[in-house]
Write a structure and sequence with these properties.
This protein is mainly alpha-helical and 165 residues long. It has 3 helices and no strands. The chain starts with a helix and ends with a helix.
Length: 165
């Protein structure tokens, strides 16, 4: 009987340890769940706070933009007033006309420079071709000499020599 009691006590001790272990795991799980819930609530609170901050920042930015726009408008009106007074001076229209004329002339000069560069390029091409012509003329004279056996009466124009060939 004592052996049975001892076996039963050991069995109860094992059950107690199993129950304690199970309870510890359950507490850990419950703590994790509670921690997760707390974290979720904290995240939600932070998200709401950030939304409020963004909204406030947008409102501040809009107000600042409006203030800056008002300042710009104020100074544009001031400038327009100064410009109107300036344009009343007697030499201003003449000055403005001269400035327009200068701009037009600058455009014309730019266009003429482009044309001049184009003409220079054409001239350089023509000179390059003319530089090659004497070499071709000499080769043609040699060919004519070889064909006729003697030098024909050659005039200084290349087309005549080529035409006699």
């Amino acid at each position: 009987m004592r052996a049975e009691i001892k076996a039963t006590e050991e069995q109860l001790s094992t059950y107690r340890e199993d129950i304690k272990a199970t309870l510890n795991r359950q507490r850990i799980v419950e703590n994790s769940i509670q921690s997760t819930n707390d974290s979720s609530l904290l995240v939600e609170k932070l998200r709401c706070d950030l939304k409020k901050q963004v909204t406030l920042e947008q409102i501040r930015t809009e107000e600042q933009t409006e203030r800056y726009q008002n300042i710009v408008t104020k100074y544009e009106k001031l400038w327009n007033g100064y410009e109107a007074v300036y344009n009343l001076f007697p030499m201003v229209p003449e000055r403005n006309n001269l400035q327009l004329r200068i701009k037009r002339l600058e455009i014309i000069v730019l266009h003429k420079r482009k044309l001049l560069e184009s003409e220079k390029a054409k001239k350089n091409q023509i000179e390059a071709i003319r530089g090659c012509v004497p070499a071709n003329t000499a080769a043609t004279l040699i060919d004519v000499y070889c064909d006729y056996g003697a030098a024909p009466a050659v005039s200084h124009s290349t087309p005549e020599v080529v035409g006699k060939r």
